Amino acid sequence: MHSKSKSVRLVNVTKAFKDPQSGQPVTAVDDVSFEIAPGDLVTLLGPSGCGKTTVLRMLSGFETPTSGQILIGDSDVTEVPPNKRDTAMVFQSYGLFPHMNVFENVAYGLKLRDMPKDAIDEKVTRFLAMVGLDKLSKRPPSRLSGGQQQRVALVRSMIVEPSVLLLDEPLSNLDALLREQMRVEIRRLQKSLSITAMYVTHDRVEAMSLSDQIIVMNAGKIAQIGTPSEIYRDPINSFVAGFVGKVAFFPCAVREFVKGVDELSTWEMKACRVEIKGKTFDIPRWSPNLKPSDSAVVMCRPESLSLGEPGAGIEDGIVSANVYLGNSVESWVKRQDPSQSDILVQIDNPDVKKIWKEGESVSLTFEPSLAKVLAA
Ligand SMILES: Nc1ncnc2c1ncn2[C@@H]1O[C@H](COP(=O)(O)OP(=O)(O)O)[C@@H](O)[C@H]1O
Ligand SMILES: [Mg+2]
């Protein structure tokens, strides 16, 4: 690990603003606590306005918490000004110096730190090569594509090896293919330099593919913290379930909690036995606080659903569209209740599976071992 890698800790941080129109206080960040381990990349994921940028601005020092504490490593930086914090920030708008060429932009932070010229030349050349920009070092930013400009912005902030790198929706201005490439690049650079990083996005695919941990935020509060797979497979509530991936919810009644035997071991474990339209299912995951006779929902991801003859499953519907994606087909199913959106069923290896045609009546079936029972 990079010797400077530091942890980041927020302890009960709240930030209230005064609404510019009404003059009323707005709680942008509400009693938020979390920790980032040294060298980890943690993503704040949530809808627009949930407080992500405010958390980042408090980490960089451009905002001061109304209450609570911010620590970088062992130091309390809550009141420390931005230029004394050793953080670097990358924005959606690249923020390059227009009058400097690529090399000068990247060298800027090292010059400020009085690094000798030879050492600067060596380091800038090495960093530009890492992102394939060594041939463009003399170009002004105005003669670079968006992706190239964002690469310059990235290496410019990473080259000073800050204790904490902060990235606020850095890929939002790029097209889809470039975003995918840059995701991989950011992760590779961040890991190879072992820089502790906080990444902000409202894009779940970005969050899933980049992060060691994801913090899902909603309305200023933390909804859940977990690894990408924990958040996807084991969301704490229906907000998180729906925000981090496509999902279908089927109303059910909780009957009892039963003992079963795990297939992989002889451990005894409990399952939540639920009833959906007279059929019972034992589901291995459920949200805490559920009690027998509660009404709840069974949460299913697209890959855990399959289609069959009408009447054979837990709900009937009509195939509204099939989207062929090569290694899978996405079948959309219109539900009988028109107020509910269509359900996505992912059919892998479509060449050896039955694909129901658009307009055909079908029933939906789910794989209980992949499902979770959530409070309704
Ligand atoms: N300087 C400010 N003054 C007043 N309200 C603000 C200010 N900055 C942010 N807010 C409000 O705080 C909330 C969270 O904003 P922000 O952190 O930018 O959300 P996000 O980055 O998740 O979209 C929003 O309701 C926003 O309008
Ligand atoms: Mg924002």
Quick recap:
The protein is α+β, with helices and mostly antiparallel strands and 376 residues long.
Element layout with pairings:
Elements: E1 8-18, E2 25-36, E3 41-45, H1 52-60, E4 67-72, E5 75-76, E6 87-90, H2 102-112, H3 117-130, H4 146-158, E7 164-168, H5 176-193, E8 196-201, H6 204-210, E9 213-218, E10 221-226, H7 228-233, H8 238-243, E11 248-261, E12 268-276, E13 279-283, E14 295-300, E15 305-308, E16 315-324, E17 328-335, E18 343-348, E19 361-366, E20 372-375
Parallel strand pairs: 3-8, 3-9, 6-7, 7-8
Antiparallel strand pairs: 1-2, 1-4, 4-5, 9-10, 11-12, 11-14, 12-13, 14-20, 15-19, 16-17, 16-19, 17-18
Helix pairs in contact: 2-3, 2-4, 4-5
The structure holds adenosine-5'-diphosphate and magnesium ion (MG).
Could you report the average pLDDT, rounded to the nearest whole number? 93
CATH level-4 homologous superfamily of the largest domain: P-loop containing nucleotide triphosphate hydrolases
The H-and-E topology, N to C, reads as EEEHEEEHHHEHEHEEHHEEEEEEEEEE
Helical amount: 10-25%
Fold and architecture overview:
This protein folds into two domains: 8-242, P-loop containing nucleotide triphosphate hydrolases (Rossmann fold, 3-Layer(aba) Sandwich), CATH 3.40.50; 246-375, OB fold (Dihydrolipoamide Acetyltransferase, E2P). It has a six-stranded mixed sheet, with helices on both faces. It has eight helices and 20 strands. It has helices at residues 52-60, 102-112, 117-130, 146-158, 176-193, 204-210, 228-233, 238-243, and strands spanning 8-18, 25-36, 41-45, 67-72, 75-76, 87-90, 164-168, 196-201, 213-218, 221-226, 248-261, 268-276, 279-283, 295-300, 305-308, 315-324, 328-335, 343-348, 361-366, 372-375. It has 376 residues and is an alpha+beta fold. The model has no long low-confidence stretch (mean pLDDT 93). β11 (248-261) and β12 (268-276) form a beta hairpin. α4 runs parallel beside α5. The chain is globular, with a radius of gyration of 25 Å. The protein binds adenosine-5'-diphosphate and magnesium ion.
